[in-house]
Write a structure and sequence with these properties.
Structural class: alpha/beta
CATH architecture of the largest domain: 3-Layer(aba) Sandwich
Order of helices and strands: HHHHEEHEHHEHEEHEHEHEEEH
Number of domains: 3
Number of helices: 12
CATH class of the largest domain: Alpha Beta
Largest sheet: 9 strands, mixed
């Protein structure tokens, strides 16, 4: 708790001596509103009425004497004061979550929980089998698996909504402890009648610059693979030409099958090509070989459930040759 106390002395906290006690429900709503930009979506996520959300925020603003959100027909957006208050909420909620972990360690150790935030790439790779093995070893541990983008998974760690994240390696991990989980190369796929098919079919390495000028099926705007490809194109002085953009790897495979362009897929998702006539090959550039990482906040207490999961990840990790 020392880190929390120092932070609280240095930061403006979301209540004072003359104000009501800290309300964790309202704090979560503030963070949900900041994330979604919508009262309706925040209310749906929290399972309460939109009117109740509006009332809580209005009451809080009245007590604080500041406006936390700018309202418009398009939704809500944090003001400068709102950003400061939201950061205070993150500090307190994270400290509460950390305290819960510490208190749980005083129990028998026979029961517990593990909240895992992971990307779709992790779930289409070896993670499901590893989770089955973990569950068999730890039948008293409740697993909460949350699929989300890498950026949101790391945010969930920051806000105390997840214990461990499994994400791609192209993010800032300064405040996280990380370990390798799975090696993951980027592959290109195309229909058998595509001009690239004769070069792709032998499943030998192909250069990114040999592919980039063809129409492309995009994936996950601002997702880790999208960011990786966009950065590679920028460094090459080229631009990706996307005919369509999809939000899942199965959808990407279907759109490539339909002839909308070539696609890029992680090796952890190559099993999605089973039953198709698509051809594929790995990109030969060094940047195309990535890793999925197991991440946790350095400042978060390490529970027994977290320790055993991280140990199993390390025990079963097999580097690519």
């Amino acid at each position: 708790m020392e880190h929390f106390i120092v932070s609280m002395k240095c930061s403006k906290v979301p209540w004072g001596d003359d104000m009501a006690p800290f309300d964790s429900v309202t704090a979560r709503l503030i963070l949900l509103l900041a994330e979604t930009g919508s009262i309706g979506r925040a209310a749906e996520r929290e399972g309460i009425a939109s009117s109740a959300v509006s009332r809580r925020v209005s009451d809080l603003e009245s007590r604080l004497g500041v406006v936390l959100f700018d309202r418009s027909a398009h939704g809500v957006r944090l003001t400068t004061a709102g950003e400061a208050y939201a950061e205070g909420c993150r500090i307190v909620l994270r400290a509460i979550a950390d305290l819960d972990v510490v208190m749980a360690e005083f129990g028998s150790g026979q029961r517990g929980s593990l909240r895992l935030a992971c990307t779709s790439s992790a779930l289409t790779g070896r993670l499901p089998e590893l989770l089955a093995r973990y569950a068999a070893r730890n039948d008293g541990i409740d697993l909460d698996i949350q699929e989300m983008s890498a950026a949101k998974a790391l945010l969930a760690l920051d806000e105390g909504r997840a214990d461990i994240a499994i994400v791609s390696d192209n993010y800032d991990f300064t405040r996280f402890e990380i370990k390798a989980f799975e090696d993951d190369r980027v592959w290109v796929l195309a229909p058998p009648d595509h001009p690239l098919a004769t070069r792709i079919e032998p499943r030998k390495d192909i250069g990114f610059l040999d592919v980039i000028d063809y129409p492309i099926v995009g994936i996950h705007q601002a997702g880790s693979l999208d960011r990786l490809l966009a950065e590679a194109a920028r460094k090459a002085g080229r631009q990706l030409t996307e005919t369509v953009r999809v939000e899942s790897f199965p959808a990407l495979v279907r759109m490539v099958e339909a002839g909308f362009g070539v696609g890029f897929l992680r090796s952890t998702s190559l099993h999605l090509l089973a039953g198709t006539d698509l051809v594929c090959a790995p990109l030969g550039e060094s940047w195309a070989l990535r890793q999925l990482l197991v991440a946790r906040r350095k400042s978060t207490p390490l529970s027994a459930a977290m320790k055993s999961f991280i140990a199993l990840c390390s025990e079963t990790y097999s580097p690519s040759s």
